[in-house]
Design goal:
This protein is an alpha/beta fold and 233 residues long. It folds into two domains: 146 residues, Rossmann fold, CATH 3.40.50.2300; 79 residues, Arc Repressor Mutant, subunit A, CATH 1.10.10.10. Helix content is 52%, strand content 14%. The protein contains eleven helices and eight strands. The strands form two sheets. The chain has a six-stranded parallel beta sheet, sandwiched between helices. A two-stranded antiparallel sheet has the order 5-8. Strand 3, helix 4 and strand 4 form a beta-alpha-beta unit. The protein is elongated and about 50 Å long.
Length: 233
Amino acid sequence: MGSGLDRAMRATASRATSNGTTRAGPAKLVIVMRHELVAAGLEVLLRAGGHRVLAHLTRSDDLLRALESDRPDILLLSMIRSEAVRLISQLRADHHSIPIILMLEERDVVTAASLLELDVDGILLGAACATSLLHCVESVRNGRRWVDPDLLQCLALAEGTARPANGLTTREADVAKLVSHGLNNKQIARALHLSEGTVKMHLHNIYNKLHLRSRTELALSVAATAGPGARMN
């Protein structure tokens, strides 16, 4: 497990440097999770990544008090989606703008459309590896949204090729499809025989037409168009 943690830390540091951004530093987290052994394991991984767990709560009722006293940078929830929706809605209604990472429980049934309804900054599978956990926390800490690539791939490919979204040209739909497969701009440009500048222009147009803000939202939107069969158990 140590080598995976080392690779994760090197990768996130390299990404921040290559993007020319200033890293926000280690995160302080509060974890809401019923399973104490799993929470303890997560805390070990997060500490190895340089982060700090302020509290581990087993009851969501205790969360509001913890947010006031501990003032965490990130809230990590591990619960089924229906419970998460209720808790997140309550937090947002009470004007808590804290970044939230949702770790989906294994028994949850998830569709791309249901994930788009969640007001969260990161989404992880319950079976995610240590590297994914640290990538997610690092991204959210630095103000970026993050969705588990394995989840995106399952949603986008479950029922084959997604249908082009309304209002997109054929080329824009091609770009959107490749984004949903996890390709970056350089890889998309190579696959479609375009320049990176042209890919960026298509993405700008796609975001405007679909009223989206990020590649993550676009990938989920494309996955949602694959129909009711695009789901992960």
